[in-house]
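Person: At home tonight, work slowly through the protein below, taking as long as you need, and write a paragraph about the fold.
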Amino acid sequence: MRSTSVDAARRPGSERSAVAPRLSGTVRVVGAGLLGASVGHALRAKGIDVVLTDSSPAQLRLAVDYGAGRLAAEDDRPRLIVVAVPPDVTADVVQAELAQYPDAVVTDVASVKLEPFRELQERGVDLARYIGSHPLAGRERGGAISARADLFIGRPWVVCRDGDTAAADLALVEALALDVGAMPLEMTPEEHDRSVALTSHVPQVVASLLAGRLAEADEGSLRLSGQGVRDTTRIAASAPELWVQILGANAGPVVEILDSLAADLREVSDALRDPGAAGARRVVAETIRHGNDGVDRLPGKHGQNRRFESLVVMIDDTPGQLGRLFGELGELGVNVEDLRLEHSPGAQFGLAEISVEPASLHGAISGLQERGWRIAGNTND
């Protein structure tokens, strides 16, 4: 029986899409947490029948009540199954789903790909219908209550195929990624795990270590917190239980990067022990410059490696100011490529750091100043 207690259209970003879905029939989602429920919301917004199941009856009922899918029925015949469970039980659930639904393609969305694949191989499981995958999307908060239909829009969705993967089965998993708004990207399990160690797993450890220092800080220090410390510690709010599993499953690549990072930190700390020593300032400068080079390589808007210029606008903390700023930038013909807001504690204004095309920077600054906006700085300063 389908749940109608909360319509899917009421979930953020879950309005019914006008674009026809690539998938058809029933999709079974095992695991009704953040990722599983978000897959459900996104597919239901496309008009696709979604069946949900979860080992926790309370979690399952909550996801169904929010409209992420319906409860399973005995006559369900899913063509595609999405396993969205913690890494330590991924292999068990994939094996069970392959056995229970012999005509279905099974994929999983675990954040590590090599360990579940090897574990299934060692058990002798026929993996012809299994295709590991991983959407590079998430939130600091988990559970069905945090799920969103737009969670995957514009995000990479890694698909791990092998030589035995049938083209039609691969197309199903790629269709899943496309239907939820993600961008499918083929990688081997080894390539995937090395990549996420650098771009996801080590950043989590670094953010948690830095944020841990804040736990012992005095209140006076914390009152000086600006956007820098907030940016670098944002993901430290993640669930410890899940990250113990993720880091343990991808320990090899993570340790390799952490060891290199520890050596880099030691070099900088040694240089700062005597900043006046020969070569010490160069070590510090090269460290910062090398970081600049790394940031420049991060894909930006639409996945492009493009550098934008930034201007910082002071905004009064009153209703409608941000909308007025955007409206006047539009009148000036300036496209906002990115936006970051910062509020200083106790101040009655905020700082809007706006990224624009380099050619638009001067016109944006002069045009906004003519309209009475206060410019606090820009990348040409």
